[in-house]
Specification:
- With about 450 residues, this protein is mainly β.
- Helices cover about 15% and strands about 35% of the residues.
- It has two domains: about 220 residues, Adenovirus Type 2 Hexon, domain 4 (Distorted Sandwich), CATH 2.70.9.10; about 200 residues, Jelly Rolls, CATH 2.60.120.
- It has eight helices and 17 strands.
- The strands form four sheets. Strands 9, 11, 14, 16 and 17 form a five-stranded antiparallel sheet that branches. A four-stranded antiparallel sheet has the order 1-8-3-6.
- A hairpin with a 4-residue loop joins strand 4 and strand 5.
- The chain is globular, with a radius of gyration of 24 Å.
Length: about 450
Amino acid sequence: MSVPRQLISLPKANGVSGIENRVIKLVPANATGNTDFSYTTQNRIVFNVPAYPNAWINPTRSRLHFNFKRDTGSDEPEDGLPVFQRMELKSGSGQLIEQITDYAEIQRILTNFDGVEKHLSRAQINKDFRATKDRILSADLATFDPLASAGTDGVKVRHDLLCGVLGVHQEHMIPVSLFEASGGFAFTIELYLAEDKQVFKGATTSTYRLNQVEFQFELLQMPSDMSARFNQELLSGGVFSLPFKTYKTYRHYIPSGNAEFHATLTEAARNVSKVYSVFRDQGAKLLDFKGGVALDPAFVVKSYQHKYGSMYMPNAPANNSTTADGTIPDTMETMLNALSGLDLMDKGVLCSTVNAEGESRWEASDFCVVGSFTTARDDVLNGLNSASTAIPLEIDLKFKAQLATAKEMLNFLCVDQLLTIQSGGRTSLLDTGKDSVL
């Protein structure tokens, strides 16, 4: 038998005394004074995260700041300012922990599935004005230029780092004092800049540069006796485990003349939860993805199916609606399967809305074939275990017609991994994802 919670008033437990919060701002290790970063000169930004004693980093309060300036030309920058092409995270001893290639592409895919309210409320922060523009009359878009100052003083940008370990989606705190440090550092973050043509819209000759770059995060300073207890547990044979999600890229090229394509993705991972597949012209760096009926009517994905061993997902190929004369009016079946697989059917996401020209964003720029392999929303290992079987994931695609031009297919596998810290600060990387334990 139970009573309403409002009838009982219980005192709150006291928090541990002595814990302090500090906001840390790191500048690039390879910057001196007012160093500018650009694709053609200094295209790598390096942050060395110190091994602060008795301290933990709170990744949910981490962010990257920089000033973006259009150096030459007058072209309009892409929304969200996709200036990064690769991210690498290394331990203080130099071990590669995480690497995300085609960083701008997977970041654009993930933000396409973000809620409209999030886009509207954060537009001034991350400079992604797509949802804002969708609410402006098409005739008025020519005078709406929120990034006009990019050609003069530049624009200030707050960027959420896409990193499974130190990014905002990591729910566990990071015990930086437990990592083996080389030169006093727990981590090294390396960000590689994207080509100029990817950062600006259209066939551009504009260039850009970044300055005033800094990585900001919150540090939780623990009492020394608490830190000593953690270290004692590690020295007695215990292991601290840090689960995180990351993305592995697989690139395929589809020759012209093909009306169908078979892609094979081989990844030895304990838990593969989903895969995102997008298309664009071969050699292009655009972030508007093809496959829908509006962006490139000659290239439309007619059907698809994922296969893993004897499993077919879905059981029969997912076919977009086709009329009697072979016309594909829309690719809503692909969108509905994507939203359902990502558990977003009840969310107002950006890619399912209409842009300022009255076109479906899904058909005009945000098309994506999504495969979801989890059996439920529960935060457990219920995806594909390709590490034990060595079976590849296969994707069968059929198109509206034979391709007139070659296409590039980018596939991003979302996998769970586990970073373990042992006595002496030794680290190892496992393809699994468990709760953080000692």
